[in-house]
Design goal:
The chain contains 24 helices and 22 strands. It has six domains: about 55 residues, Helix Hairpins; about 240 residues, D-amino Acid Aminotransferase, Chain A, domain 1 (2-Layer Sandwich), CATH 3.30.470.30; about 80 residues, OB fold (Dihydrolipoamide Acetyltransferase, E2P); about 55 residues; about 70 residues, 5' to 3' exonuclease, C-terminal subdomain (DNA polymerase, domain 1); about 80 residues, Rossmann fold (3-Layer(aba) Sandwich). The protein is of the alpha+beta class. The protein has a five-stranded mixed beta sheet with strand order 2-13-10-3-9, with helices on both faces. A five-stranded antiparallel beta sheet has the order 16-15-14-17-18. Helix 16 crosses helix 17. The longest helix has 21 residues. The chain is globular and about 80 Å long.
Length: about 675
């Protein structure tokens, strides 16, 4: 057996390399099950040998108790803000002033080159590494003093806990500057979940990123799929670099996420063209940008040019055209979503916003409308939130003439006529009719989208047409279309080649893995991340069909609300019949496990475990997954059937009940031992 210290070091290397490949390079290198096995093994080793636990261990990314507040951090070097240039003329003015400073310093501008990078609209942060280890992270604050958000930054797996440099080559100190952001697709999903759950929605991705980083509980921050782009250095000790281009290369080599489309330009004209290209394609990227940053490449010139006020002379923000406009709110209409939720939306007089014509915008729910004080007929401010999702910011009240009218939520479903209900504690009204045609159509749209089954050639217009003709009424009907090839060829707009491509796309979707199939079903509260977590503990359709709420809730990040939603879905006979039809169509209904995975020992097979109190080497969800991976079952209440209770810090009534019933109580060390060698009841 290998030395525990050597094995722990090896596991740390394997896990961090997998994190780097997945979160930084977007090039996954290892199966999720293998990754989870490594993490569980490392947690068990550190539990048995506390002296092996190091600050840079991957197990320390998520955890810790909620904070009482954020401490202040004085930045080693001020985090300066940028002056703005709007358009090529103002950029040329900045260049002229920069040259004047260079000439006044007696310097040559023959090596004057420029670096052009996207200006991410996120939250600026500072990351401190001492002897290669991440020790502190802080927000920009006022540029001089920020807030210590180290615990929350540790949950972002794109941020290395230790530098990917040889220890002897790690600088004694390096301060990395970057921008934490929420990808636009994730922002849309987050707001949709919050709206469906009756929670306030975020105005834009920047607010959601800032709100996530300022969560006092790191576990809550970890639930948000935050990422980062790193773009520079602050204070350093032990680095000798000559240009900003070299800085970016060093950041990449040290394991940081650097935007691959940053360019170095020889002239200010080339820099202006590069910035303009970013403005043209701002809607193509999955992150919010509000400009491009132009920097002098030479670090010597940067130092000599200095700053004026709190803005560097050697860099400028090339700001893009505004992404807001005013227009008339013609009407407020209502869509019926796949879960029956009625979502209001704005019907607008078409208006150009950020280079795109906008005629509709989201309004989320009736409370959102009331909070913004909107009336039909108002002149309203429209914003492309995240430069992608149109939103109505609010009314221009001084333009009202008295003809405007308030929005009234309908009492019956506009699709099927069923009386609407408003579940207790929710702001959303819902259509309770599971056979509602509008819900069925939305299920089809969701099922075929790229992040779900990704069926090429089966877009919304085609689905609507097939639905109207009775060819596709539910998602399983999609897999019967090959039996109706001749009918399809006769349809307007279809030919033999297009039908062949469509059927080929449908066939290809049968290879989509089980977690995405689970997400594609459109079960309320089950997003992509939740589907992945559920598939970890219920790796097949059979396991899902046989699971109870407690088993579903054992999945990482899945609470009672989500578990109840899934259980309610499975309790409907029509849904179970649909799942069996999808199985018969050849969809992937089980996780493909690595060879030999089925032979792994299950030391807690047959055991029922209850967890209570705080643990040190595990989060609660990690402990649940460890027990399930070892073959056990985790429940939320103690009974005489409970095999043992794991009692951590501040255990409460569950510990008292276990002692009263005579159920075995283990501490964290006992849990680690049981995970490794099994549990034998006393006596």
């Amino acid at each position: 057996m290998s030395d525990p210290g050597s094995r722990a070091a090896e596991l740390r290397e394997l896990i961090e390399e997998a994190n780097h490949r997945y979160y930084v390079l977007d090039d996954p290198s290892v199966d999720d099950l293998v990754y989870d096995d490594w993490m569980l093994e490392l947690q068990a080793l550190e539990g048995r040998h506390p002296d092996l636990l190091t600050p840079d261990s991957p197990t320390q990314r998520v955890g810790g108790r909620p904070l009482a507040g954020f401490a202040e951090v004085v930045h080693r070097e001020p985090m300066l803000s940028l002056a703005n240039a709007r358009g090529a003329d103002e950029l040329a003015d900045w260049y002229r002033r920069a040259r004047e400073v260079i000439e006044a310093e007696g310097l040559s501008d023959r090596d004057l080159r420029f670096v052009v990078e996207p200006k991410i609209d996120g939250l600026a942060i500072s990351l401190i590494y001492e002897d290669g280890i991440f020790t502190q992270g802080a927000t920009r604050g006022d540029g001089v003093v920020g807030e210590d958000v180290t615990h929350n930054l540790r949950t972002i797996k794109a941020i290395p806990i230790r530098l990917r440099t040889a220890p002897e080559n790690s600088p004694a100190l390096v301060e990395v500057r970057g921008e934490v952001y929420l990808p636009l697709e994730a922002f849309g999903e987050l707001n949709a979940r919050r709206a469906a759950d009756g929670l306030p929605t975020f105005a834009n991705p920047r607010n959601s990123a800032a709100g996530s980083l300022r969560q006092l509980d790191p576990a809550l921050a970890a639930e948000r799929p935050l990422s980062i782009w790193c773009y520079g250095l602050g204070a350093t000790d032990g680095l000798d670099l000559a240009t900003h281009t070299e800085v970016l290369e060093w950041l990449r080599s040290a394991g940081f996420r650097v935007n691959p489309e940053i360019t170095t330009e020889p002239t200010i004209e080339d820099a202006a063209s590069a910035a303009a290209r970013w403005e043209e394609r701002r809607g193509e990227v999955d992150y919010d940008i509000d400009g491009a940053v132009v920097k002098v490449d030479s670090l010597e010139l940067q130092n000599r040019m200095g700053s004026v006020g709190r803005a560097p002379r050697w860099a400028v923000a090339y700001k893009f055209a505004p992404t807001t406009a005013t227009t008339k709110l013609r009407d407020i209409m209502v869509n019926v979503g796949r879960t029956g939720a009625l979502v209001p939306f704005a019907n607008l007089e078409p208006v150009q916003v950020g280079g795109v014509t906008v005629s509709m915008a989201t309004l989320h729910n009736q409370e959102d409308i009331a909070r913004k004080g909107l009336r039909i007929g108002d002149t309203v401010i429209v914003q492309r939130a995240g430069d992608v999702i149109p939103q109505v910011v609010g009314p221009v009240t001084q333009d009202r003439d008295g003809s405007e009218r308030e929005f009234v939520m309908p009492t019956h479903c506009p699709s099927c006529g069923t009386e609407l209900v408003q579940p207790e504690g929710e702001v959303q009204f819902r259509c309770p009719n599971g056979s509602c045609p509008a819900q069925a159509l939305q299920h089809l749209f969701h099922f075929t989208q790229r992040s779900a089954m990704d069926i090429e050639g089966l877009g919304e217009k085609t689905l609507m047409k097939f639905n109207e003709l009775g060819l596709v009424e539910d998602v399983a009907d999609i897999y019967d279309l090959h039996t109706r090839r001749e009918e399809l060829i006769e349809l307007e707009g279809f030919k033999e080649t297009s039908v062949a491509n469509l059927l080929s796309g449908i066939e290809a979707s049968t290879k989509v893995p089980w977690p995405r199939v689970l997400f594609a079903l459109g079960i309320r509260h089950v997003g992509e991340v939740t589907a992945e977590a559920i598939s970890d503990v219920l790796p097949s359709l059979d396991a899902l069909l046989a699971a109870d709420e407690a088993q579903i809730a054992a999945a990482d990040g899945v609470g009672p609300t989500v578990a109840a939603s899934i259980a309610d879905y499975l309790a409907v006979d029509a849904n179970r019949e649909l799942l069996e039809r999808l199985r018969a169509a050849g969809l992937q209904v089980a996780v493909e496990r690595p060879e030999g995975a089925a032979d792994l020992p299950k030391p807690l097979a047959g055991c029922t475990v209850v967890l209570t109190g705080g643990l040190d080497a595990f989060t609660r969800d990690q402990a649940k997954r460890a027990v399930i991976a070892a073959g056990g079952k985790v429940t939320s209440s103690v009974s005489r059937k409970t095999s043992f209770v794991v009692a951590g810090r501040d255990s409460g009534s569950k510990l008292e009940k276990a002692e009263k019933l005579g159920v075995t109580v283990l501490d964290e060390g006992g849990l680690v031992e049981a995970l490794a060698h099994g549990f034998t009841p006393p006596g």
